[in-house]
């Protein structure tokens, strides 16, 4: 299924690990240069700016090919313009196949052809079905999972997650107001199944190339689960989908449940992430907690802004203090020890500058020893012993 040569793909992953080990100080630059000199890898750019430049170049090339084809199609009468979108999409997939055979992976040019082919396919389905979003999202999910399995791009894994979620949502819309009313609970159940499915897949995975995509789906399911029960999201979507206004003094159905959900889930993420040493869940928990505070204060002005900030800061300080106490001696997973896989020299230099500026410390100047050696002479003068 994978379009790339497995040996080259393995070498590329191996070089990535070697680069990480070099940056963290486990191997020296000479060893790293020996590794990359001995292994043949796929052609790519890790510098985001260079990759973006080639992406723009690829978009220009792709649009030029499609534009030339559009000029030729003008000469044909009664030509269905909708078919052109699918033709353009096929050109994009042919382009990514060609570039993959030429060993391009994450180079920028291939990104342009793959994303362009996918977006044109989705647009073509949307126009052909006259705006049937269910068909569009099903196409997004199907095309994205096939693209990810073949080309291993994280963008396709993200599109697959969005397409699957959108397909379920629009399928529930087919049941009318009942489906829209129970949509939050359906999405909660769906995100839970997606999370545990991703966990099982990570444990049983045999091809390491797909691990990052599964981790992305795992993180997506955590975010989706929280947003599915967040009070602000549920209330505003109820107004949008059911097309009826809810007075500010009136609560939605199951309001107490959604309020509790909004507060408990981020707190659970934070505690569970510390127990399981899951850094991604920890970040999601922090962001969810911040959004929960915003949600509560958006509808209930129970505190002045300065009071809310003070209490939030105290709560964050207490949580941070006890978290550091728990993880400061961990050797693996979440730890308060310095991360060897991140360069902290700049932080250490900054600390040195701050300390020096606060205490007025001056750097010690080592004076160079004079190359002229004065020995003992028999006469008075520089270097003599004063004896005759």
Automatic annotation (TrEMBL):
State the source organism's domain of life: Bacteria
Record protein name field = DUF2157 domain-containing protein
**Does the record's keyword annotation contain Transmembrane helix?**
yes
Q: Report if keyword Transmembrane is assigned.
A: yes
Could you tell me the keywords of this UniProt record? Answer: Membrane, Transmembrane, Transmembrane helix
* TM region(s), chain numbering: 48-71, 83-100, 107-127, 158-176, 182-202, 214-234, 254-275, 282-302, 308-324
Q: Which organism is it from?
A: Flavobacterium caseinilyticum
